[in-house]
Amino acid sequence: MNAPIGSLADAMVLPQPYLLFLGDTTEPSFAKTAFGLADWAADRCVGEMGVAGCTVTTGLPRLSPAEAYAAGARSLVIGVANQGGVIGDNWVAALTGAMEAGLDIVSGLHVRLASVPALAEAARRTGRRLIDVRTPPPDIPVGTGRKRSGKRLLTVGTDCALGKKYTALALHRAFLDRGLDADFRATGQTGIMIAGGGIPMDAVVSDFEAGAAEILSPDAAPGHWDVIEGQGSLFNPAYAAVSLGLLHGSQPDVFVVCHDPSRKVILGLEDFVLPTIEEVIDLTIRLGSRTNPAIRCGGVSLNTSSMGAGEAEALLGAESRRLGLPVADPIRGGDAFAALVDSCLA
Amino acid sequence: MNAPIGSLADAMVLPQPYLLFLGDTTEPSFAKTAFGLADWAADRCVGEMGVAGCTVTTGLPRLSPAEAYAAGARSLVIGVANQGGVIGDNWVAALTGAMEAGLDIVSGLHVRLASVPALAEAARRTGRRLIDVRTPPPDIPVGTGRKRSGKRLLTVGTDCALGKKYTALALHRAFLDRGLDADFRATGQTGIMIAGGGIPMDAVVSDFEAGAAEILSPDAAPGHWDVIEGQGSLFNPAYAAVSLGLLHGSQPDVFVVCHDPSRKVILGLEDFVLPTIEEVIDLTIRLGSRTNPAIRCGGVSLNTSSMGAGEAEALLGAESRRLGLPVADPIRGGDAFAALVDSCLA
User: Fold this and answer.
1) Least confident of A76-90, B141-155, B198-212
2) How far apart are CA A62 and CA A55, in angstroms?
């Protein structure tokens, strides 16, 4: 688990280990959160449970809430989303039973847990907590721009949903593998569950966006790295405000541009052409230098999941030569990814 | 009063005319809101009232709530802020009496009106509304970047609190004086009270910031102008997220840069040098062109309130020649301001 986040720590530190809840899901893509936790927080997941009809599995042991509690679990995490992002009626008995077994409930769904009367009542009766990770902590201060100690890396993107969280997690793991002192700083609901804490930056009131990013990566030892999960894109006409507040408040020393070469337009906004990687580098340096004049680009992370190995390797090499920067796909790893890590730490 | 704002209109249309409430204020600078309303919404202010100890006046008639109601008033606006921005204990009886006389209460203070138990109780008893203009309307959509009909002007700034609201109001009035169809679109609490509606952009959740700006200036007739009050600055390390979301969502055809030549550093953040006017023009065009490729700078509004008339005139002329753009102080008006209006409409 990460170090506490200043005085807001208590509000955003999740009870761990987790029991992963899969609901009645039959479609693996709806269980992305559970798979992400099984991949990136396996040491803090004791097992999984579903209700009647569930056919997906993370591969973790199937446990009842009581068995999970006995194995150390302290919360049940809703690891699935149905269409609409609501609490299924057929989930309520399982969630209530988990509270009776001593587990808090953690959710990243849009609907608030306490808005389901049966869950609110069970929480009162059992004394358990209902934790919505989409809800920011209270009392976030406005930003100050004050330079903080320690080092910071931020992942940025040509758009939303193309690998900024995954890239940050992979870089964080690589930094730890090299013996560095580093924290992954989460800014979205899945990242927050993986990290065990963080701030859902898209849910913060605009006036406090940069301030939230400032408290997310507090002063640290000179050799310490915060690897910060990016959000949105400076070029996304819906979400650029989130990206700029996060950039200013994070004051990164290094950023990595995340891009999906198969994407040509902004997700869901087809009139908006995707920016080039060079445009993202240029604008990120220009805007980021307001709070860290030494900001630099460490390299590029390409999501080559739609390509075969040979095609991907050729593209990574060609893009690296074209841009004069390390270009890697963290999922493929290899020498290219090692070069990206080297460049970030240089 | 402005045209309704899409389907959110009901949430943000204030009951008018107003009775201005001055509390027990003795310091005119704490009554800025009342003075702003008396200046810019005089036709919708029937009078003023204070409580024991009040020594400031807007020059409007002193009326009791019953007299104000008889004169047409439908709300009492709290036109003052004490230190801390709270409801004075010695205000409560007057505010309760206003509700009994048939007036809703409108406030731009940080504290929520309904958090004062006596006011909440009186509102329930009398059926009157407690309206906090710092609270955004519910159900704001995310942005789409879709091009809207009609024309838009946005005021931007080298920093906060140097004349963006005043400049937008003066340009709006000048547009009306020239017979144009135009609305002032308010983005902060005083502006919202003046306009009788609007959205407090700094209080909107970041993910919805651009979307809020989009619904604030909806589709309009081709010759119609929305004159939009700017917020913050793209160069302010605390508030740039607000400014960028407002810029993207407003998709302005024209912007006017507001600047105070006596200010050298960001207000309250002395380590941050104020950007130059040219830097603001350049960055606003670069970022604004994402949602309106035809964006252009109409000119500059200088706040010369700290200068004598001769010194101010010389500076306006020199800056205009240096920048190759109209430069005016809207408070001084004159030929320079007329040239700025011409340029915006060109």
Assistant:
1) A76-90
2) 12
Q: Please give the Cα distance from A280 to A247 (Å, whole number).
A: 12
Q: What residues 125-144 of chain A have any CB closer than 8 A to a CB of chain B?
A: 142-144
Residue B99 DSSP SS3: helix
Q: What is the pLDDT of residue B316?
A: 98
CA-based nearest residue in chain A for residue B243: A241
Sign of the Cα pseudo-torsion (A136, A137, A140, A145, in order):
negative
The topology (CATH level 3) of B6-132 is: Rossmann fold (3.40.50)
Question: Which pLDDT value is given to residue B312?
Answer: 97
The pLDDT tens digits for B170-181 are 999 999 999 999
Q: How does pLDDT run across A295-337, given as a tens digit for each residue?
A: 999 999 999 999 999 999 999 999 999 999 999 999 999 999 9
Q: Give Cα A72 to chain centroid, integer Å.
A: 24
d(CA A238, CA B144): 6
Topology alike, domains B6-132 and B151-345: yes
**Residue A132 — φ and ψ, nearest 5°?**
-100, 110
Given pLDDT bands bounded at 50, 70 and 90, which one contains residue A11? Answer: low
Position A131, amino acid:
I
Sign of CA dihedral B311, B314, B319, B322: negative
Closest CA to B285 of A37, A296, A283: A283
A240-250 and A277-288 helices, crossing angle to 10°:
50
- State the smallest CA–CA distance between residue A48 and chain B in angstroms: 32
* Spatial separation of the C-alpha atoms in residues B326 and B337, rounded to whole Å: 8
Q: Quote the CA–CA distance of B223 and B262 in Å, as a whole number.
A: 37
Task: Chain A: give the shortest CA distance to residue B239, in Å.
Answer: 6
Tell me if A218 sits within 8 A of A185, measured CB to CB. Answer: no
Kindly report, residue by residue over B23-80, the tens digit of the pLDDT.
999 999 899 899 999 999 999 999 999 999 999 999 999 999 999 999 999 999 999 9
B242, closest residue in chain A (CA to CA) = A206
> Which residue's structure tokens are 């001084």?
B332
ipTM of the complex: 0.93
Q: Tell me the one-letter amino acid at A329.
A: D
**Residue whose token pair is 């003075």:** B35
Percent of residues, chain B, with pLDDT higher than 90: 91
- A224 or B83, higher pLDDT: A224
What are A18's strand-pairing partners? A45, A75
Class of residue B51 by CB neighbours under 10 A (exposed 0-12, middle 13-18, buried 19+): middle
- Secondary structure element (H or E) that encloses residue A258, with its range: strand A254-259
CA distance B262 to B165: 18
**Contact present, B250 and B210 (Cβ < 8 Å):** no
Chain A / chain B CB contacts < 8 angstroms: 119
Beta-bridged to residue A78, according to DSSP, are A21
Per-domain boundaries in chain A: 6-132, 151-345
H helix intervals, chain B? 9-12, 32-40, 65-70, 92-100, 117-126, 164-177, 189-195, 209-216, 240-250, 277-288, 309-323, 334-345
Q: How confident is the model at residue A1 (pLDDT cuts 50, 70, 90)?
A: very low
Nearest CA in chain B to A201: B206
Sequence length of chain A is: 346
Q: Does A206 touch chain B (CB under 8 A)?
A: yes
CATH 3.40.50.300 fits A151-345, yes or no: yes
Q: Flag if A201 and B206 touch (Cβ within 8 Å).
A: yes
Mean pLDDT within A86-104: 96
